[in-house]
């Protein structure tokens, strides 16, 4: 009996695939970085690409924004007071180390004086003459000899680099003399720091007699050093929120929405690298290398510009939808879904999600996460139902008004919400109560 017959043939079919090019991935990455992290992100990108210039105007303290209202300021103060106590900074860390040393009162006095003179980066920038005058005024003896001993002792403490008289000494203190690369690393820090900061590597490579690959390896070692060791001890403190968007009243009662550009550095393409990419006197390989760097720098510049434009569009649309909350505060948020706003702006919902992720808005109600303005409706009532945060405030107010001798149960609060037009289940009330950090009725009971 003959076996089955196999038929072979060719068939064509149409299929669509979305391939993200590196340029698109760059734009997506920049879009989702919040303002307080974008500065560091751009600095790292500039270190990796000589064609990218990142410049900050140190004379610009930032843009003023709308002052919070009285109630908003009180809520912000209450939030700050509720934060856990943080560990101390550099001075406390050094004091703890000094407490372990067996020091005479005189020498401990000199070290305490030096610690008090450190700048926020942990550097000892005051001149010896000034320190001697301060020591004499404090009644310390020993003069220059004791001062020199105290400086040397301070520079042995952690974090390494603390007590350096300038940036060069700070970095040198962090190098290990037993390291085989120690001589080369010292020369790079002492003689070529400016060239390294500008990524001008040909001069240092020739001076040290090393190949470019070897120089890159040494640079990786230097990148592990901390130019601001004093800041490390404050890393666990609450970060300062930097708003990405500012919303404030404009002319004619309109809301003005703008980017907080004063908090971000300016990015551009290095004109020297651009000219290098065009110079025909260079070998084609060198020009190709320069063109590739310039092109990647252009991607970042365009990505930063596109980030601002997208964020501004999304923030303006959110402000228009949540105008009542921006003007009158809690109790006036309206339900808003990201998909709904994305359809209105003609954007993909993932783009809106990245645009609001980690971003903050400065308005009359304080500095708030942009994502907070996207709230689901609670209970029944469709578009008339309150937003989740507003319902939380209603639940908080009900519990606050209870008789402490007869505290309300979760069922009683659910019934009260129903009388106010909010159909909420008891388990939802219990969940909100826990989120508000309100104990159970048994623990809240107060006897006369």
List keywords for this structure.
single chain; 448 residues; mainly alpha; Arc Repressor Mutant, subunit A; two-stranded antiparallel sheet; 22 helices; 6 strands; 6% strand
- End-to-end separation: 100 Å
Percent helix, as a range, is 40-55%
Radius of gyration: 31 Å
How much β-strand is present in the residues? 5-15%
So what's the overall shape?
flat
The low-pLDDT segments are 16-20, 58-62, 79-87, 380-384
* Secondary-structure class: mainly alpha
Largest sheet: 4 strands, mixed
Task: Please write the string of helix (H) and strand (E) elements.
Answer: HHEHHHHHHHHHHHEEEHHHHHEEHHHH
In short:
This protein has helices at residues 22-31, 35-48, 70-82, 90-98, 105-117, 128-137, 143-154, 167-173, 182-191, 193-197, 202-208, 212-223, 229-232, 271-278, 284-321, 323-328, 338-345, 349-356, 388-400, 410-419, 426-435, 441-444; strands spanning 52-55, 245-249, 255-259, 266-269, 360-363, 366-369.
Characterization of this structure:
With 448 residues, the chain is mostly helical. Among the domains are: 90-229, no CATH class; 321-444, Arc Repressor Mutant, subunit A. It is built from 22 helices and six strands. The chain has helices at residues 22-31, 35-48, 70-82, 90-98, 105-117, 128-137, 143-154, 167-173, 182-191, 193-197, 202-208, 212-223, 229-232, 271-278, 284-321, 323-328, 338-345, 349-356, 388-400, 410-419, 426-435, 441-444, and strands at residues 52-55, 245-249, 255-259, 266-269, 360-363, 366-369. The protein has a four-stranded mixed β-sheet. Strands 1-4 form a two-stranded antiparallel sheet. Helix 1 crosses helix 15 and helix 5 packs across helix 7 (143-154). The longest helix has 38 residues, at 284-321. The radius of gyration is 31 Å and the shape is flat. The N and C termini lie far apart (100 Å). The model is unreliable at 16-20, 58-62, 79-87 and 380-384 (pLDDT under 50).
